[in-house]
Specification:
single chain, Chitobiase, domain 2, TIM Barrel, 14 helices, 31% helix, 20% strand, EC 3.2.1.52, beta-N-acetylhexosaminidase, glycosidase, hydrolase
Length: 464
């Protein structure tokens, strides 16, 4: 939701003049602003262009003419993000631009774009044409949870040209949203290996059609490491973000002659290469095993423990625990929810999430994995209004009140209606939201927490 200003002093009955003067004020926080509304006019001061942008958003929501008084506002966290997976289901450029508009409307300022995975490679790379000729397309798509082993039998794919990606980056920048790209490596690489089998370890097969984790990973030869550097060089040329994501998660080692230390060495190699380009590595919390490279930023997803581990190790961290902020997880126990997977994650659950209190915590992001979201409308249904709740978590101070949020939410949903957003109604799913052709697989929270504890044994120095 649009966060409430931190300090509001309005005067009922008196209205401000129509003239608006905007100016930068370096004494304010970079994304902060102050609105002084008087009968003779309005003065907007912002700590940066972003602060002025957010101030104008607030001014528009005060109505016309706005009441007199003062509004002072600034966000709590610098990283207010959402991860969008365009690898499992490709999202055309206009849909990505629309999604950027929606997150900017909620004062979120980071779009973490998951561009590649076992099921699809979505970014062209000069000199490697088969990445998009072959790797961007799969012959069929799994319907629902993988436990049901259903497929639709229809080809699916697509990719972004360099011009497409520059357009997305520029569109986002105008709305003060940073696009952080991710090309997952050395695991989640079956689509690339399908295009260029020499990158793998003997696998010569198609782009993966089923969900889950492929055992087919990069071979880490000098030639393959050269490929990875070329990909990252191109990504650096397209995306101005300080951080470049390499994933680093869920990498099976069954095809490697060595153990997990090979992945740590690979991560260090890619971090050094990015440092030579003036960038920093951004990776999932698996990069903590064996020691994450200096300067790396950790996306802590395997429950709440990895964020604490990252902070103790002195790394900056973005919090995105799956049981708190994975928006592909089911929203209720209603049988009409489309493809219910994961643990129950309600609107109130998201609103109640609180990142650890540390200066190393940059903020938090919601993750939208799209195995079960074949369109932007489906993404909107799963994202909103839970993403409204996260927007308030990362902007507003701690000690929020859900009852107050819930009382304000219906008015905000009217704004989403006006924007044509296909959000989930507070009353529950509509009949047309159900997907009986794509059945889910709900998980119990206690079972998932036990699984996460086992998954993070590497962070505690325990045998895997």
């Amino acid at each position: 939701m649009i966060p409430r200003p931190l300090s509001v002093r309005l005067e009922p009955g008196a209205t401000a003049g129509a003239d608006v003067v905007a100016r930068l004020d370096p004494s304010l926080p970079p994304e902060g602003y102050v609105l002084d509304l008087a009968p003779e006019g309005i003065l907007l001061r912002g700590g940066s262009a972003a602060g002025l942008f957010y101030g104008r958003q607030t001014l528009a929501r005060l109505g016309s003419p706005p009441p007199c008084g003062r509004v002072e506002d600034a966000p709590r966290f610098a990283w207010r993000g959402v991860m969008l997976d365009v690898a499992r289901h490709f999202m055309p450029v206009p849909d990505v631009l629309r999604f950027v508009d929606l997150i900017a409307f909620h004062r979120l300022n980071v779009l973490h774009l998951h561009l590649t995975d076992d099921q699809g490679w979505r970014i062209e790379v000069p000199g490697w044409p088969r990445l998009t000729e072959v790797g961007a397309w799969r012959s069929s798509t799994m319907l629902g949870s993988r436990v049901h082993d259903r497929y639709d039998g229809r080809p699916h794919g697509g990719f972004y040209t360099t011009a497409d990606l520059r357009r997305i980056v520029e569109h986002a920048a105008r709305r003060h949203v940073t696009v952080v790209p991710e090309v997952d490596m050395p695991g989640h690489m079956q689509a690339a290996i399908a295009a260029y089998p020499e990158l793998g370890n003997g696998f010569a097969g198609p782009v993966r059609t089923g969900w889950g984790i492929s055992p087919h990973v990069l071979n880490l030869s000098p030639e393959t490491l050269g490929f990875c550097r070329e990909v990252l060089d191109h990504v650096c040329d397209v995306f101005p973000s300080d951080l470049i994501g390499i994933g680093g998660d869920e990498c099976p080692t069954v095809e490697w002659p060595g153990g997990r230390e090979l992945q740590a060495a690979f991560t260090a190699e890619m971090a050094a290469h990015l440092a030579g380009r003036g960038r920093r590595l951004y990776g999932w919390d698996e990069i903590l095993a064996g020691g994450a490279p200096e300067g790396a930023v950790v996306a802590a997803w395997r429950g709440t423990e990895p964020a604490e581990v990252a902070v103790r190790a002195g790394h900056q961290v973005v919090c995105c625990p799956d049981v708190k902020l994975y928006l592909d997880y089911r929203q209720s126990g209603d049988p009409g929810e489309p493809t219910p997977v994961g643990t129950l994650l309600t609107l109130e659950d998201v609103y109640a999430y609180e990142p650890p209190d540390s200066p190393l915590v940059l903020g938090a992001q919601a993750n939208i994995w799209t195995e079960h979201m074949e369109s932007l409308r489906r993404v909107e249904y799963m994202a909103f209004p839970r993403l409204c709740a996260l927007a308030e978590v990362v902007w507003s101070p701690a000690g929020r009140d859900f009852a107050d949020f819930a009382a304000r939410l219906p008015r905000h949903l009217e704004l989403l209606d006006a924007l044509g957003v296909n959000y989930r109604p507070l009353s529950g799913p509509r009949p047309e939201d159900a997907r009986p052709d794509a059945p889910g697989h709900p998980r119990d929270l206690a079972d998932r927490l036990a699984e996460l504890h086992e998954m993070t044994a590497d962070l505690r120095g325990e045998p895997e």
